[in-house]
Amino acid sequence: MKPASVSLLLGVDMLLLSVLTVSAVFLNVSPNRPQFFPGESVTLTCEGVHSPDGWTLKRRNYIEIKSCGEDFGQFDGSSCIISDLKAMSSYWCEDRSGQKSDKLNIYVSDHVILEMPALPVMAGSNVTLSCRPRYDSYRVRSINRKSESDRESFSAVHTIYNVQKSDEGVYSCSVIYTDMVMVSGHSRLTVAAPRPDPTSPSPPLSLSMLRVFCHLLVVGLYCISTILMLLICCSRNRNSGEEPAISMYDDVTADVTADVTTEHEF
Hints:
Layout: H1 3-21, E1 26-30, E2 35-36, E3 42-47, E4 55-60, E5 65-67, E6 74-76, E7 79-82, E8 89-95, E9 104-108, E10 112-115, E11 121-122, E12 127-133, E13 139-146, E14 151-154, E15 157-160, E16 169-177, E17 180-183, E18 187-189, E19 191-192, H2 205-241, H3 248-263
Parallel strand pairs: 2-9, 11-19
Antiparallel strand pairs: 1-3, 3-7, 4-5, 4-8, 6-7, 8-9, 10-12, 12-15, 13-14, 13-16, 16-17, 16-18
InterPro entries: Ig-like_dom, Ig-like_dom_sf, Ig-like_fold, Ig_Fc_receptor, Ig_sub
Protein name: Ig-like domain-containing protein
GO molecular function, one term: transmembrane signaling receptor activity
């Protein structure tokens, strides 16, 4: 088989192996909130990192994309420490091959921020949202929620008990100073499915069997391609070591020629 075929099998092996070993990366933030005042600090960490290429933190502001350590923050392995937030930006983790985590929008406001979780919260937990003005002279007006179906307003501190997917939406808050109304950034509250209870019944058989079948299919394809590659290599090595065979026809022709030559010698 041609070298191109061997290279193709090697590529299939590497692809299947990557399917078995790659794990998702996600962006963690501390403190866990999406809005800050200017000059505050935040630590962003790429977690779940198993890529051999390594990951770095990227930031997009209004004009350009930069990596942590270039002109913002200090990068330490998988964490980026930003000690002086200045403007709204989007952050995400990215490796050299272009794989990316989900983006996190961090808002920086001079007047008011809404303190709420930046990361997804588990369904069934309690979540508290708090409107925080920068100056005591500001009077909190309300916390506002905008969803696909409606708009709602709440008091300065709003606790959602037993949060569910229906509580998702974009939240903001506003304050009043004399005649002016100032609004915070708009941040999305995301509710994730609760972690499975070890004592709860196992998932339906059909779903479990589907997952098992997918894993077995990937492992089976990987094994088959590996065996084919080994057989090809062994076949090529055996053929290169064989000596050319001598045909029986050549032997008979040589004997006849020798007899004729001897018969005409006097």
